[in-house]
Specification:
The complex is a heterotrimer of chains A (about 400), B (about 425) and C (about 325). Chain A has about 400 residues and is α/β, with parallel strands linked by helices. Chain A is built from 13 helices and 14 strands. Chain A has two domains: about 210 residues, 3-Layer(aba) Sandwich (Rossmann fold), CATH 3.40.50; about 150 residues, Rossmann fold (3-Layer(aba) Sandwich), CATH 3.40.50. The longest helix of chain A has about 35 residues. The N and C termini of chain A lie far apart (about 80 Å). Chain B is globular. Chain B contains 16 helices and six strands. In chain B, helix 4 packs antiparallel against helix 5, helix 5 crosses helix 14 and helix 13 packs parallel to helix 15. Chain B starts with a helix and ends with a strand. Chain B has about 425 residues and is mainly alpha-helical. Chain C has 13 helices and four strands. Chain C is mostly helical. Classes of the chains: A alpha/beta (about 400), B mainly alpha (about 425), C mainly alpha (about 325). The interface between A and B is large, with 63 and 67 residues.
Chain lengths: ~400, ~425, ~325
């Protein structure tokens, strides 16, 4: 009996100690940071900017690219902030594409007094609940990629985005499909996630207004590999365009299997397809695929080309569609931060001041987009770009761009 | 070591001094530290220390109550990480209640349920639908969202709805046994999630994949509950009720029936235990805890969508039960606390730390190895190791020990026709 | 409505057969292990997934060295199938040795929990390796058989639409049939097969009859896992893209197939797999048509699980299984 008890006590203590050791790891890092800036002042001149994107899970490619883009922007600005007397640091969080994790991380971010801004998220389903927390702590969030309308429609003061909204992206895609591609009968497939459903609904509305006929509105499951069931419906209905609201993993397979089935009509998708992995998965089948994206082609401009080179040099990877958006989102955030510091007489501002200044940013010239926030936090200059894949090569060819004004 | 422990076990005064000192020291270390995860966890583990003492139950509860209600929030409120600690503590509470629910089904009645998170989802959606404008789509009367005051009623409604579904699900499922039961419940869990994800057609009930945003915060006397530090108290009250209920159930007739069914169904049936009723009761009670916490979760997150209720979530709760010890209430509490803290704090902090190191160029850890992604790996290892080497868990379940001699004496008295209260000297280990 | 359903029938049947063949072979693994140990090997789906990854990795290596272009596709396929099935077979044996054998006399619940643990462990290890090597755990292999063959179903009757088939479909089907026939022969006609059946019927008595029970069980795991791994390769060839989480849902459906055919019954598992594949495809293509858009294609998983639950509740012995009486 006693032996058993001792054993159980031992087992528990070892576990507890193990966990504590893990935490003290986290601790060490704090003390190390504080020690790193001269010991005095308790690290009051360290300013942290957090990123929250999925670094694991199905959309890790995109999440990672946002993080890296933001990291690049932050490192470039470091010297500038040193002059003002502040040390910039990046704290990347992994939201795993899971709202619960996003909210728990948001609480951690909010609790860390040194954090003055967030670049994120990728998934609107995570951004919406997490931003409620940022609002409580008045931490400004600049989103590089959230296109769902609800992100800014809730009227939060801290939430901004530099990309276009779904109710702009969907109809823009529909307009292109109906007017330029002459699609009259459209079959819509979506992946039953917040992003895919929202985009597909917006596209459907836009297409119906333009007089196209919607033959079907079907869902698939994320993570599946066999889409023949839905494609058999497409075969039976014979549409002249397929629209897919969802991400590149499912999108790539869908395109491939559709072409294997002998469905040759154009396939169109949203910005979730905008990744090099799509081409990897679909291979040659990707021809005759169109996509609308909130992300512009980075390498069209000189600034963009330079960015791509820097990115490649630093991380040894090619840029993804949202890399530059991560970079610009961070740029806008730091611009707001800088303004807030200057307005505060070169002293550390409050989060509130930073959030106000970020919202006030006008005509910021980023690598891929100009940024001016309206009263809701949407970007006035956001554009929708329409791409076409003519060959199995990423990035695709720019076909058209639509702007708000 | 053994002698030393033995001395401590014998001497209550010594125990009181140790526990008291420990609590005071950890309290001040957390109170004075700006942000220390370690201090926070050490203060929490004072409850574990308390468990190992030999005080009477009442004293334990009293001290534990003081620590939980007063000391922990007070100590944490000084630091800047106050809300994030409270968030962790709140989630720990939520998971403990769920793990206790699953413990009734798996640990006590021996029915392996792999779709347990479905009940949690039911509770969350019950509140979510009526506390947003969602209910306007199909409710013929009333206008929604309901105000935050309704939250308190919904705790009971969520409890009831989940229990009802537990029974509904139980009726067909109980025809199958053992492994099959596990697979069937897993199937049901997935079915419920898929249905929630698709119930936006033909009538929009759950808003499908878009989820329900801006759920009304609970209100009491005009105060809106918005912060984790406030939810902490809601969870604490529910949790204490749940623990109390579980303890009472465990040693009641139904609790003994559950254990009998777990050990041997056919023998239990032969002893006159009504199998179906017993099992359904386990399902209903277990589900009701989850349903209640689901309501709290929806209010706390202010956003409900189907992605929060995956199979991984069900397995997580199972891991908590296995780690702590199947059928052991204190064990399950410990298991749930450990796993939740591991998930939320330890892995995240570790990942951040490694990120810092690689940013500063100290060491280079490949991204694939970041601890936050290792959840499945860690759960897998815990499940395998515990199943192989310690199937009874960290704090094994104990059955009450009856003194044979006393029972015999009592028996003699009864047989002699003397009507007298039988002193049942039951020694309960809590 | 009936017309619409009939239009797509040929194509649905072809797709259903492909999927069904995959289900059938994975179901064999479940059925064999269950027949001999009365244990649901939860990790079997993950063994299938590991097989898919191993196969794709070998193919990618070949392609990297430029060998793929220089050898006929069939040779490459056979090579990959053999290597993969040996690797996954050994993996299955290892899992049995480490995680299941010590628990052979433990309560069922505990063994099942270990199995879940093993399945999680495998998922994460594969993810980790893939991510380390590739930067992304979604892996796309080289396409081996991507030729298209049109089937003129409309010449049979005008009500059918034409269907098209990938040549990999035939590969999948033929390999699957070969595997099933070989297994059937092995179990019913060889000495080892007899030993397996003996152990499945009564472990103690078989041991008394000088059957080496441990060896037989290890062999069962080897064969079941080898088949599962080989199917993983077929899956990767047919669908091209894999990730570490494909095994779970597919494993569940294959288990459904095994139950449908009667668990422990090898021929039943084959039949159940094909049946389930065709039914699922049919549901995905025709649910919206039949229910007038109320139930979309996304309900097809619900459909599969519903079959599982209904069979388990009302006819747990499946279509071809034997009714077992429980003794105390």
């Amino acid at each position: 009996m006693v032996l058993k008890k001792t054993l159980s006590i031992l087992a528990t203590t070892t576990l507890a100690v193990g966990i504590l050791a893990g935490c003290s790891g986290g601790q060490k890092n704090d003390t190390a940071n504080n020690g790193g800036n001269g010991g005095g002042g308790g690290g009051s001149n360290v300013i942290k900017i957090a990123t929250q994107t999925p670094l694991s899970g199905g959309s890790a490619t995109l999440g990672e690219s946002i993080k890296l883009g933001a990291q690049l922007a932050l490192e470039e600005q470091q010297a500038n902030f040193e002059k003002l007397g502040f040390k910039l640091e990046l704290v990347p969080y992994d939201d795993q594409g899971d709202p619960k994790k996003g909210v728990a991380n948001a609480q951690l971010i909010g609790a860390d007094k040194q954090v003055f801004g967030v670049v994120g998220h990728l998934n609107s389903g995570v951004a919406i609940p997490s931003s409620e927390i940022y609002e409580k702590y008045s931490i400004p969030m600049v989103s590089p990629a959230n296109t769902a309308t609800d992100v800014t429609d809730r009227g939060l003061k801290t939430v901004n985005r530099i990309c276009a909204r779904d109710d702009f992206q969907g109809p823009a895609g529909a307009k292109f499909a109906v007017e330029k591609l002459g699609a009259k009968k459209i079959f819509i497939i979506q992946d039953k996630t917040a992003y895919g459903t929202g985009l597909a609904e917006a596209f459907k509305k836009g297409a119906e207004e333009l007089g196209a006929q919607i033959l079907g509105f079907e869902g698939i499951t994320v993570g599946e590999k066999d889409f023949n069931g839905v494609l058999n419906q497409v075969l039976a209905k014979k549409p002249d365009l397929i629209y897919f609201g969802g991400l590149y993993t499912e999108g790539g397979l869908l395109i491939k299997q559709a072409r294997d089935k002998g469905i040759t009509v154009p396939i169109m998708g949203g910005d979730g397809l905008d990744s090099s992995t799509l081409v990897q998965i679909a291979g040659d089948a990707v021809k005759n695929t169109y996509m609308t994206s909130a992300a512009g082609l980075t390498t069209v401009t000189d600034a963009g080309k330079q960015f791509a080179e820097k990115y490649k040099q630093k991380f040894g990877k090619e840029i993804e569609s949202y890399s530059a958006y991560g970079y610009d989102a961070m740029g806008v955030l730091l611009k707001g931060l800088e303004n807030a510091i200057k307005a505060n007489g070169n002293k550390l501002p409050t989060r509130q001041q930073v959030a106000e200044e970020v919202r006030k940013v006008q005509d910021y010239q980023g690598v891929v987009t100009k940024v001016s926030f309206d009263e809701k936090g949407d970007n006035k200059y956001a554009k929708i770009y329409i791409y076409k894949f003519d060959e199995a090569k990423y990035p695709a060819k720019l076909e058209d761009e639509v702007s708000k004004q | 070591m053994k002698n030393w422990l033995h001395t401590i076990q014998q001497n209550k005064r010594l125990q009181a001094i140790i526990v008291g000192l420990y609590i005071v020291v950890t309290f001040f270390s957390l109170y004075l530290a700006q942000k220390s995860v370690v201090a926070f966890l050490l203060l929490l583990s004072s409850l574990l220390l308390l468990y190992f003492t030999t005080f009477s139950n009442r004293v334990k509860w009293l001290i534990g109550g003081v620590v939980m209600v007063v000391l922990l929030p007070l100590a944490a409120s000084q630091g800047e990480a106050y809300q994030s600690y409270m968030e962790v503590a709140t989630l720990v509470g939520i998971y403990i209640a769920m793990a206790l629910g699953l413990n009734i089904v798996v640990g006590m009645a021996g029915l392996l349920d792999l779709g347990f998170v479905a009940f949690f989802a039911l509770g969350a959606y019950t509140y979510g639908i009526f506390a947003t404008g969602q209910a306007n789509n199909f409710m013929p009367f009333g206008h929604y969202p309901l105000s935050g005051e309704s939250f308190w009623v919904f705790i009971f409604i969520g409890c009831f709805v989940a229990a009802l579904f537990g029974i509904l699900l139980g009726v067909p499922v109980l025809r199958v046994k053992g492994d099959y039961l596990a697979i069937v419940t897993l199937g049901f869990g997935e079915i419920i999630r898929i249905i929630f994800n698709n119930l936006d057609k033909p009538v929009n009930i759950t808003n499908g994949a878009m989820g329900l945003a801006s759920v009304q915060p609970p209100r009491l006397f005009g105060i809106d509950f918005m912060y984790p530090s406030q939810f902490y108290y809601i969870v604490l009250v529910i949790l204490i009720t749940v623990i109390f209920a579980v303890r009472r159930l465990e040693f009641s007739k139904i609790g003994r029936a559950w254990k009998a069914v777990r050990e041997n169904e056919i023998a239990a049936q032969a002893m006159g235990i009504h199998l179906v009723k017993t099992k359904l009761m386990a399902f209903a009670v277990g589900a009701s805890f989850s349903g209640m916490m689901g309501v709290v979760f929806a209010a706390k997150q202010t956003f409900v969508d189907p992605t929060s209720f995956t199979l991984l979530e069900s397995i997580t709760i199972l891991v908590m039960v296995i780690l702590g010890g199947m059928g052991s209430v204190p064990g399950v509490i410990l298991g749930a606390a450990l796993v939740t803290i591991l998930n939320l704090q330890v892995l995240t902090e570790l990942t951040n730390w490694l990120n810092q190191l690689s940013l500063n160029g100290v060491i280079n850890v490949p991204d694939a190895l970041s601890p936050a992604k290792m959840q499945r790996f860690i759960f897998g290892v815990i499940l395998i190791l515990f199943a192989l080497y310690r199937p009874q868990g960290l704090l094994p379940a104990k059955n009450p020990v009856f003194d044979e001699k006393e029972l015999k004496d009592a028996d003699k008295l009864v047989n002699a026709g003397v009507q007298k209260e039988v002193p049942q000297n039951v020694h309960l280990d809590s | 409505m009936i017309n619409e359903v009939l239009h797509t029938l040929p194509q649905v049947l072809i797709d259903g057969l492909t999927l069904g063949a995959v289900y059938a072979i994975v179901a064999l693994g479940y059925t064999m292990v269950y027949g001999i140990l009365e244990l649901i090997n939860f990790a079997h789906g993950e063994i299938f997934m590991t097989g898919a990854f191993v196969g794709t990795a070998i193919l990618l290596t070949f392609a990297g060295f430029g060998w793929l272009a220089s050898m006929p596709a069939l040779v490459a396929l056979v090579l990959v199938l053999v290597v993969t099935s040996v690797v996954t077979g050994l993996l299955g044996m290892g899992i049995e040795r480490v995680a299941y054998r010590p628990l052979r006399n433990a309560p069922k619940l505990i063994t099942l929990i270990t199995a879940i643990g093993v399945s999680f462990l495998l998922q994460d290890i594969v993810r980790f390796i893939a991510e380390l090597k590739n930067g992304n755990y979604i892996l796309t292999g080289p396409s081996l058989f991507s030729g298209q063959i049109g089937i003129k179903a409309s010449s049979i009757s005008s009500i059918f639409n034409d269907a098209s088939v990938k040549s990999s479909f035939f590969i999948v089907l033929i390999v699957a049939v070969i595997m099933m026939v070989t297994l059937d022969f092995f179990v019913n006609k060889t000495k080892w097969g007899m030993a397996m059946r003996a152990v499945a019927q009564d472990r103690e008595t078989a041991a008394l009859m000088s059957v080496n029970v441990n060896k037989v069980i290890a062999l069962t795991f080897f064969i079941g896992s080898a088949l599962g791994g080989a199917t993983g390769v077929l899956f990767a060839i047919q669908y091209g893209t894999i990730d570490p989480y494909i095994g779970f849902i597919l494993g569940l459906k294959a288990f459904t197939a095994a139950v449908l055919g009667g668990i422990g019954n090898i021929r039943g598992a084959m039949f159940g797999g094909i049946l389930l594949g065709v039914m699922e495809m049919f549901a995905a293509a025709n649910l919206p048509v039949v229910s007038h858009g109320v139930l979309g294609a996304e309900y097809k998983d619900v459909f599969a699980f519903a079959i599982l639950i209904i069979v388990l509740i009302f006819k747990p012995e499946g279509l071809f299984g034997k009714v077992s009486v429980e003794k105390v």
